[in-house]
Fold these 2 entries.
Entry 1:
Amino acid sequence: MDSELFSKVLVLDQNPECYGVIKAFCESHNLLGLKVQEERMMSVLQSYIDLGGIMLSESCAGLDEPDGGLARAIHKMRPELPIFLRLKREESAPPIPPSDLKLFNATYRIDDINVLHEAVVASIFSQDYPNALVRGIIELSLHILTSQFPSMNVEVEKPYLVRDRLISGEVTSLIPLESNWCRGYMMLQAKESALRELVPGKSGDFRLLNNMLGELTNLTWGAFKSRYINQAPSTPYTSQVPTIVNHEQRYITFGSDDPLLCFNYLLSAKDGGPPVTLQQRFIFNLNWSPEDFRENETSVDDFFKSGELELF
C-alpha cells in the first residue's frame, strides 16, 4: 500500500524547453505537474480541481498589464494557493516591485530551480504525516467501506495534500478529532448523485443519503479513535476558530493555512459501471504534534469482534 504523499500543481510556461526541467523538479519533490494552457487557466481554477500550488512563468504572469494580469487574477480567485514564479528578466533588469512580489511564495530561474525546495516544503508539505498514520487511515477506511458495501469493489487512490479549501460535491459531513497529539476535523464529501448510486433502492429521500454519509463518518471516527487516540489532552482545550462554509463558492475554511490530507475512495459495482467517489479529508488546524503519535495495540478487527464497533 503506497502511503507516500504527493500534491498537484498547475504548470503554465510559454517556453516549452523549460517543461523538462520543471517536470524533473516536480518528480523529485512529490509534485504532480499538470500542464495547462494560458487561455484555460482561469476556467481550470473554476473547475474545483484539488491543488497544492501553481508554477507560473513571468512571461505569463502579466505583471506589467494595466488590468492586473494573470498572476493577480489567480491570487484573487485562489489566494490560498502558493504561486512559484519563474523569472525571465535579465538579472541586470529592474527588480519586480515589492507589491507584485507579494503575489508569489518564491521566485526562481530555470537554471537554479532547486532554490524552490524550501518554499515547496514550507508552503505545501509544511506538516509531517507519519506513514503509519496514513496507511492506517486507508486500512480502517477500506475495512469499513468494504464491510458496508459488500457487493462493490472498493479501491483507494494515492493520498495527497491540498492547499485549497474547495468543497467537493454537494454533501459534506464533518466531525471533530481531539487527542493529546492532534486536534482538528475529518470530512467526508460526495456528490449527491454518487450517494444515490450507493443506495439505489433508497435514493428518493435526500435525508437518507445524509444519514448514510453521517454514519460512515461516525464509523470512521470510531475506528480512528480506537486505533490512534489513547490519551485525552492533559488540559482541556478552550480555544476555537470559526469554520466558515460558503455554499455559493463551494468553499470551506478552518481558519488555518495548513494543508489538508486527502483520500479518494472509488466504489464500483462488481459487474462493471463507472465508480462512485467518496472523498475523505483531514485538517489538524488546532493542534498537530506528530512526535506524540502512537498506534494503539488493539486493532480495528478486535473492536468489531468485541462488539464495541459495529457496522450499520
Note: DSSP finds ten helices and 13 strands in the chain.
Entry 2:
Amino acid sequence: MADNELDGIGVLITRPKHQATDFVAAITQKGGIAIELPVMEVIAHDTAKIENDVASLLEPDIAIFVSANAIRLGLAHAGTARIAVIGPATAIAARRHGREVDIQSVDGFDSEHLLQAEELQEVHGKVIRIVRGNVGRELLAQTLRVRGAIVEYLSVYRRQIPEYSDEELARITEQWQAGKVDVVTIMSVESLQNLLKILPRECRELLVHTSLVTPARRVVQEAAVALPGVQTTLAKGPHVNDIIDAVLACKNP
C-alpha cells in the first residue's frame, strides 16, 4: 500500500492498549489519524492461581488457545499437548513463544472454522484443554463434548471494561462532533458491546452514522441489531493490512 492512502481519515481503534501498537503505527504511516479508545483491558491471573488450577486438571492431549493473550499467559501450561489455535494472530504468537502449531483452520479465524479441522473430528476420549479468559463462547466445548472429548477450561486472564474520566470522554465526543472520527474498528462482539457501554449518548448517536470495520461476521450481525442502519464493512481477516484495506474500501467504494 502506498503512503498517505488514508489521507487524514480518522480511525477509532478499540483494541486493548498493548495490542494496538501495530494498528496505530500502520494507520499513521498511511497518513491516517489513529484515535485510541481501548474498550477492553486484559488482566493476567495470579501465577499461583493458574498453577493451582493446572494441578487440578487432567493432562491434555490437545490444548486450544483462543487468543494471543491466551498464548502469552498460558502456553507454559500446555505440557506436551498438541497446540491448536483459533486464528492466524494466535498462531504467530505461539511461534514467537517457541511452539509450533499443530491444529489450525486453513481459511478462518473463529471457533466455527477451527471445529472444521480434520484433527478435531475424531476426538472421542481425548482430553482437550481450552485456554482462555474468564469467560467466552461455549461453542468449542459444547461441540467437542458432543464428539466425545473430555473438555476442561484453563482461565489465565480476565477481561474488563476500562474506566474513563469525564474529561477523556468529553475529548472523544468533541473529536466525533467535529467530524474527526470517520471509521471505528471493532474486533469482536464483546468489543462492540463494551464500546456501547463506554460511549456517551452523543457518541452513540453519531456511531450510527460512522463507518464500522470488523473482521468478524458476528459483529456485523450484532451491529445490525444494536445500531440499525450503521454502515459495516467486513475485513477479510484480523491483520493490520486487512483492516486498512477494509477502511479504504468503505471510504472509497
Note: The mean pLDDT is 94.
